[in-house]
Amino acid sequence: MWLSEILDRHCQQRGDAPALAENGRVLTWRELRAAASGVAACLASQGIGLGDRVAVYSRNRSEVLVSYFALAYLGAPFVPVNHAMPAAEYGEVGKRLDIAHVLGEAEALSRLGLPTGSTTSFEDNEFQRAMTTGEPPPAPATGMDDTLTVLLTSGTTGLPKGVAQTSGALRQATLSWLAEVKADDRIRFLNLNSLSHGGITLTFHYLAAGATVFVQREFQPRTVLRALAEHDITHIWLVPHMLRFLVTASATEPVPLPALREILFGASPITAKLLADAARTFGCAFRNVYGMTEAGGTFCTWLWDGTDATRDVPLESSGRAVPGIRVGIRGPDGHPLPLGETGEIVVGSAGRMTGYVADPGATGEVLDGGWVRTGDLGLMDEHGYVHLRGRSKDLIKRGGQNVFPAEIEQVVGQLAQVREVAVAGVPDETWGEVPVAYVVAEPGAVLSRREIAKHLRERLASYKQPARIDFVEALPRNGAGKVLRRELTRPNGASA
C-alpha cells in the first residue's frame, strides 16, 4: 500500500528528519508513522474498518494528513471535504457516497448536525492521545488495486462527484511527477491550497520524495511571507489569486526569501502581468500545474525561471505531458486531430480514477477506452505544449461560430490595468449566445469599456468581440480557486 510504503521508506532512511510541520509543531518521519498508527488504532476501536468511507472535514492542519495515513492503514477510503462546504451540500454528498464516519475540527463538525458516535473531533482528548501513543504500525489492510481515497471534484457546474482512486494509481501519478521535477528530501514544501480536493495528490508526491511539508490553517498573506522566511521554504503551491495577494503584501512589507526556489500554481490561468510582477518580487522559478482529479492529478507542466534556458517556454500554454502520461487532442468524432487544431484534451494515465462513486453513467462519459476525457478544449503545438481554449461546457456558439472564453481572457489580460477577467456566454435573441467579459480592474486604475473594446478590436475577429463588458469587484470562485462562470451570468451577478 503506497502510503505505508512512503512512511516505511523514510523511517528507514531518515527517521529523525522532519516530515510534517505546523505552527512550530514538528513531526519526524517516525513520529508521523507513530501518530498515523495510533489514530488508526483509535478509529478501529470505534468500529471503522475495511471499506468504510470516512470524510475528513477540516481546515488545513497536521491532523488532516495524519488521518489520511491512518485511514489508509485501515483500508478505509478517506474522503477530503472542504471545511467551507455548507451542511446541506455535505448532507447530499455524504448520503450519495455512503460516508460511514466524519473526522474533523469540532466547529466544522457541529454544523453538520450528525448523530453522536458518527463523528470524531480532532480536538477530542482521545484523538490527541492517539497521536502520541507510539503504537506500532499495523499491517496495511489493502493492496495497490484497492481504493485509497474518494476525491471530490471541484463542482464548478454542479454538485461534486466522488472520484475513486487506488493506491496504485496514486503511486503511478507520484512517480510520473517526481521523474519530471527531480524532487528530493531537501525540499521544504508549503501547500497553501486546501488539503481537501484533488490538489492533495501534489502534497503526497512531495512527501514521497522525503520533503518536509508545512501546513497553515489560514491564508493570510503577511503571515505566509513571514513563514516563508522563518522556515526557509523552498517550494510553495498556490492558486494565482493567492500569488497576487502575496505580491501586494510584499510591496508594503518586503521579506527577503533567499531559500525560495519554486512557486507552483494551478487551478486557473495566470496573467502575463502577474507572472512578471511575481518574478520581480520573488526572483525564483515558476511552475505551471495543469491537471484533473479524474486523470490522477497533474499531467502537464512547464517551468520558467527567466533565464535563457527557459526563454522559449510558451507561458500562455499549460505545459507538456509529464513522463509516463499521454496527452492528445481529439475531434468531435473521437479521432486524433493534427497539431494546431482545437479539440478536446484527452489523457492516458495509469494514475486515472477507477470511476465516479455510484455514478456509472457519468463514469462512462469520462473514461473512454483507456483515455480520460477532460472536457477541456485546446490545441497542441509542434513542441508538444498544450494551449487551453476553455471548457467544452463554456464554449460559446455565436451564430454558428465557436468562441473560446480563454482566448478573449488572454487578450483582455494583456492590459496592465486589468487584474482579472472572466468571459462567459449569455443568451441572445439574434445570435443564440454571445460572450460577456467580466473585468476586475487594478486598484486605482483608470480603465474604460471603450479602452478594452478598442484593445480587443485590434486583436480579435469581430465575432469574438464581447457583446458587453462589465466591471466587477471580484470573480466568484470555489474552494479550489476556480472561477464560477455560472455565478457571473446570474441576475445581479455583476455590476454594470
What does this entry show, briefly?
It comes from Amycolatopsis silviterrae. The protein is an alpha/beta fold and 496 residues long.
How does this structure look, described?
The structure is a single chain. The chain starts with a helix and ends in an 8-residue tail after the last helix. The protein has a 9-stranded mixed β-sheet. Strands 16, 17, 19, 20 and 21 form a 5-stranded antiparallel β-sheet that branches. The mean pLDDT is 92. Helix 7 (167-181) crosses helix 8 (200-208), helix 9 (221-230) crosses helix 10 (240-252) and helix 10 (240-252) packs across helix 11 (272-282). It folds into 2 domains: 2-288, 3-Layer(aba) Sandwich (Rossmann fold); 395-488, GMP Synthetase, Chain A, domain 3, CATH 3.30.300. The chain is of the alpha/beta class. 30% of the residues lie in helices and 28% in strands. The protein contains 15 helices and 26 strands. A hairpin with a 2-residue loop joins strand 1 and strand 2. It is globular.
